Amino acid sequence: MTPADLSRTVVRAVCRAVEEGELPAGAGVPERVVVDRTRPGGVGEYATAVAFQIAKRAGMAPAEVARVIAGMLAGVPGIERVEITGAGFLNFVLAERSAAELVREVRERGARYGFASPEGELRERVVGDAVRRIRHSQGQEGLGGLFVAPLARRDRGVVALYGADAAAWAMLAVAPHETAVFSPRLLLQDEAANEFFRVRYAHARSRALTANAAQLGFLAEPGPVGGEGGAVVRGLLDHPLVLEAAAHHRAPERVVRHLVGLADALLDFQYRVLPKGDEKPSAAHRARLALAEAAGTVLAGGLALLGIDAPDCL
């Protein structure tokens, strides 16, 4: 269950509570519920403060509203339990997913993994386009005044100097109100010094691992990967939340930071994927390869949302 799915599930629970008279009609049903990662002191993976929003219109205490919503969510597939903390925060403990299940979903959805289920100047246009794509991935529309103006002379210059993809990365790597940094590092083919290169290189490495495995006579197959793949698994699990938050806050820089973290995890994990020496390919190698392929798919999908290519070879 993605954060966007969880948000819609809570909206449906509120709607049902109003229809069944558990909440007064005047409480209203929000169009969208903001779901965030649980903060210190919370429980489970995600939390929402929607009960406080509804309580004002319902004339009820937030904790009472939270108890009603929690009751409506009992037994929903994908949610193991709902707990209430503080004055009325709803905390969600999701059903545990194995690495194999996660990888299968990425393989099935490809570059659209993390997308919500169906239900001026160059920089401003680059950011606007990225925000539009990210919001579209979450089923959201309406960007206000993000598309404006012709290219500034300086912006035409950085594209000519660094290339469209590297220039776009620099523009999207920081919040729109911050100054983009165009550095000679953008041109370095160095994974340690250039985050832009590192992310695309990690994607290319995932493709190379697949080719190398084929030469060794085995293919990827989702399965248990153990703790050694934990950082990659966490990166895949967080991807839908990052997209949902980036869409809500219109902040493509969140996607940039997430892709860098996932790339770091994959580049560290890559050395555990293929057999070494006289070692024969095993189920563990096939599972690790499947996880690496899934990470590469997510990197390519994230770059595509930013309007940046993900070449198979660098």
Features:
mainly alpha; 314 residues; 53% helix
User: What spatial form do the alpha-carbon principal axes imply?
Assistant: globular
Helical percentage: 40-55%
Tally of helical segments: 11
Q: Give the distance, in angstroms, between the N- and C-terminal Cα atoms.
A: 34 Å
Mean pLDDT: 87
Structural class: mainly alpha
Number of strands: 4
SSE run: HEEHHEEHHHHHHHH
Strand fraction: 5-15%
Task: Give me the side-by-side strand order of the main sheet.
Answer: 1-2-4-3
List the helices and strands and how they pair.
Elements: H1 3-19, E1 36-37, E2 46-48, H2 50-58, H3 62-72, E3 79-85, E4 89-94, H4 99-109, H5 122-137, H6 153-162, H7 164-172, H8 195-215, H9 230-249, H10 252-269, H11 283-305
Antiparallel strand pairs: 1-2, 2-4, 3-4
Helix pairs in contact: 1-3, 2-3, 4-11, 5-9, 6-7, 8-10, 8-11, 9-10, 9-11, 10-11
